[in-house]
Structure formats: structure tokens, C-alpha cells
Amino acid sequence: MNQGIRERMKQLVNLINQYDYEYYVLNSPSVSDAEYDRLYKELVELEERYPEYALSYSPTKRVGGKVQEGFSEVEHLVPMLSLENAQTKDELKKFIDNVAESLKASPTFTVEYKFDGLACSVVYQDGLFVQGATRGDGFKGENVTENLKTIRTIPLQLSKETQGRLEVRGEVIMHIDDFKKLNEERLAGGLEPFRSPRNASAGSVRVLDPSITAKRKLKFYAYYGFGDKLSAKSHSELVALLKDLGFLVSPLFEVARNYDEIIRAYEKALSERANLPFEVDGLVVKVNEHRFQEELGFRSRSPRWAVAFKFPPNEAYTKVKEVRFQVGRTGAITPVCVFESVFLSGAKLSRATLHNIEDLLRKDIRIGDTIVVRRQGDVIPYVVGVVPEKRTGHEKQVEIPSECPECGSLLQKRGQAGVFCENSLCPAKLEAYLEYIFSKNCLNLEGFGSKICEKLLHFGLVKSFADVFTLDRDDFLKLPGFKDKLATKLVDELKNKTQNVELWRFINTLGIPNVGRETSKLLADRFLAIEELEKASYEDLVSVNGIGPETARAISNFFKSQSWREWKSLLDRGLIKLVKTS
Ligand code: IVH
Question: Which residues are catalytic?
């Protein structure tokens, strides 16, 4: 009997670990959420009843157990080295030439991403995860086994049994989307945002409470390894093996025969950099053949067979010229920092919005200050902080407005960190809301840019957002410079795009605080019709995976607002029609 239970527990562990791998590493789940939940629940119940049979590599260990008192020290069997940098193509050329000259041979090279996160090592004994450590000073790191266990892309059991000890090295990183979400949550909770995805990953691994790590959507990318029984003869074979064993590896991985081929890979990577889901600060070029790696050996702190070929930096110093205050669609007042223009990842930048006034005060940005500006991926730039050492004493404090810069009404403090213009007729608010309604992830109205919004308001054709939906050709013809053809085109576009609106787009268009594109999709998937969402209780809303209490409250409040009554009337009058989902 007990033997049967033991077997079942083992079977469940194997199955769920396999499903986690499919979901988190391959991005291609083979079971439904419901089936997964059922198996997981069965395992939890069995482990509660028979704790003596619970396996060390059970997926239930990933939620993060007890808070630790401190991290013990781990001595690295083989030091975790850093890499020499090549900042320019000439420096890369020098590396390639030196290698060829020392070897008196022509090795091949591998090209992969240089991840920007926290370097960690994970150790397996006979295929089971036994220890995780940070790099530390390269010789000794911190024992973060419990924290790393919570990262779903670190297998608890390798998909193929490997005999003896295997150590895998890689980087714990946070994807840019997850980083942004985390910072939004921190700001909403009055906490200081992380400076970069790299800081967020380091801060999330090096916490004593592993349940915090578990909540932080971290990923581990493997790029190096060694063990008792590894048969790989080259780095490319090693990486293929790591992938086979269940690890995520660099999605860019090429074998190049010479300098020109490396440069080609570099140019391509650089052009794709802005669209990557995570930050990379360059490529790592490695001598591929292990026999050549061995021949080249190590310097005291870095291997002679590898080099980090850096991308142009995505951070720069500049000087603050002024700080303006902008009124957003919800009435939130957002400070905009205007600075001396700088080039960052190919774009000329001269302004960055701050999160809110609180953010401005916390960063203590003054006119004339030297600041660090940063840009990640294709995302709009932001101000990391000031460089206080550069202050001369001539910097000027920013005056925080007490009145709306657009309509003059008294500003109100709302919630943790927001200052708002509450005037429902504030023209700046309405203009920002119109721009939002027309934008790509809302109604996606082509030709309805910021200029048109400004004109529609300026010439009195739109006094409330609802007026947009009754505009006809004659209305557009009243605007200066608008001829027949353009007016017809705009009316056609308006008709087309409002008569067949997907539910998620409509939800996003409503502009509910905290509800962006992704949340709108979650809600549309769950409720299938706007009437259902309107009827949903707070409890219904928080039960949706990915919807927190604050968002649920915002949604409930929205459906009691005047704005919703206006949207509803547009639906009732058939001016907006939603796509019916069966
Ligand atoms: S290989 C013995 N490959 O960059 C060579 N390192 O600045 C081991 N890093 O400490 C390193 N991406 O933490 C390697 N694809 C990659 C990497 C990578 C990021 C980190 C690593 C290293 C640091 C050096």
C-alpha cells in the first residue's frame, strides 16, 4: 500500500517537473491549467499526509520555505571568473589575433548574449539539484540554494540522468516586462523602485526570505558548466547538452569561423537589441574547441579563451535643463525632466517622464543637476538618479505646482504617490484621454494622432470623449485644412474600427487605473462579455490569476463612475459594437 503511495508521489513529482519545464523553459505547455492544478493539489495533499516520503526535488519546494538567518559561505570548486572586455571592433580583432597566434591554429568561436544579471552556480549530484550559490568575489559566494530553488527555469531534476557531480553556471535575470511590473507595484505600495533589471535580479536572489524570490519571475540562463562525466568537446556541444538537460540557454548562439563572421553576428544582434525581452550589455565570444580552451588557459581573473564584446552603453550622464509638469488622461500630474540631449542606443533623447511627483522628490532632482539617464530595450528613457558629487551649489530646486498647469484648478493628493487634477472638464486631461482611446492597443484608429485630438478640442467639436463617436464628415470639414478625402477617410476609419471591437481592446480603452493591455486580456479571457465584467464582484475579480486587490477595487469603482455610464450609453446606442465571443 505505502509502496504504491510512494510510487504515486514520485510519479507526480516527475510529471509536474516535466510540465513546469514545458511551461517555463519551452513556453509550450502540454496540459491544461486545470489538469496541472489537480495534480499539484494531489501532490501537496500526499506530502502533507506522508511527509516522510516527500522528495527533495518536489516542485512544491519552489514556493520558498522558511526565512533564513543569513547565508552561509560556499567555496567555488573552480573560481567564477570575470571576462576581459573588448569595447571596440579593434579590441575584438586583437583578441582574435592573439588567440590564433598563441595557438598557431585556427579555432572556431561561439557568439552568445552577455546577460546582465546576477551570476550564479547550480550544482547537481546524480541529476538532482543540491546547491546554488552566487558568484561573490569569484572564490567564495553565498549559499542561496533555497532561493534558487524557487526559480522555475532551474531544473530540480535534470531531464536526463547524469552521474556524479555537475556544476552549471549562468545568470539570473529579470525580463524587462516583469521588471516594469515589479516597479509599478513597488511604486503603488510606496516602495522605492529598482534601478535596473540587473539590480532587481540581484535584490531578489539575495534576500533571506525565499518566498520573496519565488514571487519575482526570475529566469536563469546557463552558459558554462563542468562535471565528472561530461563528454562535450566544444562549447557548442556543451551548450547543446545544457539545453538538453532542461536549461534555458542564450537564444542567440552562433559558431563563427573568423572576425568577419563575428562582426556580422554582432551587427545583427545590435539591430535586434531593442526588441529583446531582456537586457544584454554585449556578446560573449568564446573559443569553441575545449582542447584550445585548455591550451589557452586562464589569467588570474579571466580566461584567455573568452572576451566580452560590449554594446554601446545604455546609460549616460547629462544635465537637467528644466522640469515640466504634464497632465495625463487620468488627471495625474507627471513631471517631465528635460535635459541636454544625449545619444543612447542609437536615439537622440532630451526628455524623460518621471513616475510621479513623489519620484521627483525622492530623487531630489534639481535644475542644473547632473543625472544618469538610462534606456532599456526600446523603452522610453528614464532618469536613474542624480550624481550628487557633481553639484556645484548653483542647482535650483524644482517648484512643485499646487494648481493644474493647464486649467488652473487646485491639485489634489490621492493615494500613496499621486497628485491629480480632479477637474472633469480639464482640456489637457481630455486631450490625453482621446489620444489614449485612439492608440494602438485601444481602438487603434489610424490617422487619429495627437494633432487631430488637439484640433477637435480646440474647435469645440468634442467636449466629452463620447462626442467622438458621433462625428460625421461635415464635422471634420469644419477643421482648417481638412478636405473631402481626408474627412471621408477619418469617418470610414471611425465607423470600421468601432463596429467590431474586440473585448480586450474595449476594456483597455476604458482607461481603468492599473488595467493595461495584459490585464485587459486576462479579463476578456475570463469574463467573455462586458456585461459579465460589469456584474463581477470584487471576489470574482481577485480570483482571476494576475489581478490583485488594488486592481480589483479600481475595476469595481470604475463601473460605478460617470465615465462608464457614458461608455454604456455608446454601446446601447450601437455607436460602439463589440465582437461577440461564443
Ligand atoms: S562565460 C569562464 N558567458 O559576465 C567564463 N559569462 O563580466 C565564464 N556573463 O562573470 C563566463 N553572460 O557572470 C559567460 N554568455 C555568458 C555570459 C557571462 C553574462 C557574465 C558572467 C561573468 C561576467 C563577466
Answer: 114
